[in-house]
Amino acid sequence: MDESNSIGIVTAQRAQFDTPLTFRSGAVLPRYELVYETYGKLNADKSNAILICHALSGHHHVAGTYADQPKNVGWWDNMIGPGKPIDTDRFFVVGLNNLGGCHGSTGPSSIDPQTGKPYGSSFPVVTVEDWVESQARLADLLGIKQFAAVIGGSLGGMQAMQWSIAFPERVRHVLAIATAPRLTTENIAFNDVARNAILTDPDFHGGDFYQHGVVPTRGLRLARMLGHITYLSDDAMAGKFGRGLRSGEYKYGYDVEFEVESYLRYQGDKFAAYFDANTYLLMTKALDYFDPAREAGDELARAFAPIKADFLVVSFSSDWRFSPQRSREIVKALLHNRRNVSYAEITSTHGHDSFLMQHQQYFDVMRAYLDNVAREFSV
């Protein structure tokens, strides 16, 4: 972490909600908690707030570090902080862990007060729409009537778009990065294979593995390995690993031989050690279900009709999972509705993970757009 413009030590906060939340599926959560962090200061008229929506494996710890965990740096720390593109000297930034998560917000591993046991398989399937509703309640609690911007990459970008549809008066700008208006069939297929790796793990126990004192490590490990391949580009993988062999020669067996195999297994093991299998299932289903055009005659432009926010849409040339073509669909639908929209297609070799990387052109685009957003208010 660059200490020269780091936000420094941060503290997670917890908000409890006793008003029942009705999910899109019809399920009801009587009460729940959201864990969140804030950075910077809210100005007098509360007009400088930015909401960061996280992607599949993200959470509330977006920037800074913890006093007792100095190496636990926020997942977007390169983007958020004093003088950075999302400048905490000007903006009040909110990051949260979504419902169904495994980093403190109410999710499958949380204790159900009605049973005294983890929710497990009984936790409702959650959608992007459900998350945005719960985020709006957190904004109410913080006294934020309107966000200067809602920002997200990948699944986070879907949430940012949904904000502009569901609460058009409550968001002035949307920054939708490396995202899509709905998943392709191929993406749904990848998600299904990943879920089946977990569902068929003998230690999964139908989602109630907590009570058996086990973790479906094998399934979660495989799901992450598959997902990680899709987040990278072929060029990035070739440049990083090529066909390099760990020992320099073939062993004619099935143990790890190629460097890329070692890397994927390491990533799978690391992920399985801290992420919840049920949360992984929920997050991928939320990705599958997001489709605002579905209830608008399959016309994205009609679905976007309520939107009043201005947009910045960013895509990356090597992102084949959320390709630039999908971002251009968003731009076209916004222009159809005569919305103000800026579009940047960044040349990058990092694939879908590009939105997390410190790329000069990408950061310049983000900084320039947010400079204009900041001119709309006084700190």
UniProtKB/TrEMBL annotation:
Q: Name one GO cellular component term.
A: cytoplasm
Q: Short name of one Pfam family for this protein?
A: Abhydrolase_1
Instruction: Give EC number(s), comma-separated.
Output: 2.3.1.46
Its recorded reaction(s) are: L-homoserine + succinyl-CoA = O-succinyl-L-homoserine + CoA
Instruction: Give the first-level EC class, as a single word.
Output: transferase
Q: Where is the active site?
A: S154 (nucleophile), D319, H352
Keyword list, A-Z: Acyltransferase, Amino-acid biosynthesis, Cytoplasm, Methionine biosynthesis, Transferase
Q: Where is the AB hydrolase-1 domain?
A: 48-343
Annotated residues for binding of substrate: R224, D353
For the keyword Nuclease, the answer is no
Tell me one GO biological process term. methionine biosynthetic process
- Determine if Iron-sulfur is one of this entry's keywords: no
What the protein does comes down to: Transfers a succinyl group from succinyl-CoA to L-homoserine, forming succinyl-L-homoserine.
Provide the protein name: Homoserine O-succinyltransferase
Originating gene = metX
